[in-house]
Amino acid sequence: MSNLLSTISKEKKKAGLRIFLYAPPKFGKSRFAAEIPNHVFLNLEDGLSAIPEANATPRIKSFEEFKDYLVALMEEEHSYRTLVIDTVDWLEVLISEYIVRMQRNPAYKALTDIPFGKGYPLLVAETRKLINGELEYLRTEKGMNIVCLAHSDRKTITPPIGEAYDYYAPKLYAKKDKDDTTMAAWKEWVDIIGFGNTRIFTKSSGEGFNEKTQAVSSGDKFLYLTDKNPAFIAGSRYKMPDAIPFTYQAFCEAMANALNPNNNETTEKGE
């Protein structure tokens, strides 16, 4: 009988980091990622023309083409150490289109056209298959960092106790009454979820039953990395500062400090 306990070790296999950064359009997400050494962009929205230093594919127009590039990174020799998906919300559109095509019914134009409400569960299943398949292989077997960029979206949440309030989240499929969504799939997988915006604070307006709390932004650009503010989704498996300047250098400094063996506490990713 094998001794399974003998396989337990403090040593970890060298695997890449999983980083999810989201921010408003034109905020500088792609420029941030372009500073990462030995990167390659999987270019989904064709927004890299102003960043000549970006190593990028031509614009990818289908999910099949996207996966072809992943297979090439898996099988061919290359020096890229970081894969940048630009952006995940545009990728979600391609996955949705792929699922509709796979139904082989010309009457279906969108996920909502697929009978019995199966469209969005198929989207979640295909997303999890991608994450646990090609992306996880590149991270664990090829040692590549995976950087997922996304646009932010403003949503409203109504907690069981207290007043409704607005918050920022990635522009992905997420339903307040459903746990199995694409947003949940990405959030569970990544090591760090960072929200880029100007300085965030909450502001209340109205009185009594008409009182409403909103997230308001102003000031310099920051990258928020913990879940201490209900105005956005963020969090990390590492001990990171609440917020840092939205620069690659500041992120590297925070990451180096987090990976210091003397700094082994972690913070929990926001719900």
Explained architecture:
28% of the residues lie in helices and 25% in strands. The chain has 6 helices and 9 strands; from the N terminus they run E-H-E-H-E-H-H-E-E-H-E-E-E-E-H. The protein has helices at 29-34, 63-75, 88-102, 119-140, 182-189, 248-258, and strands at 18-23, 39-43, 82-86, 145-157, 165-170, 192-205, 212-224, 235-236, 243-245. Helix 4 (119-140) runs parallel beside helix 5 (182-189). It is globular and about 60 Å long. The mean pLDDT is 89.
What order do the helices and strands come in, and which of them pair?
Blueprint: E1 18-23, H1 29-34, E2 39-43, H2 63-75, E3 82-86, H3 88-102, H4 119-140, E4 145-157, E5 165-170, H5 182-189, E6 192-205, E7 212-224, E8 235-236, E9 243-245, H6 248-258
Parallel strand pairs: 1-4, 1-6, 2-3, 3-4
Antiparallel strand pairs: 4-5, 6-7, 6-8, 7-9
Helix pairs in contact: 2-4, 3-4, 4-5
Radius of gyration: 20 Å
Shape: globular
Strand content: 15-25%
How many β-strand runs? 9
Percent helix, as a range, is 25-40%
CATH domain topology: Rossmann fold
Keyphrases for this structure?
271 residues, alpha/beta, Rossmann fold, 9 strands
In short:
The protein is of the alpha/beta class.
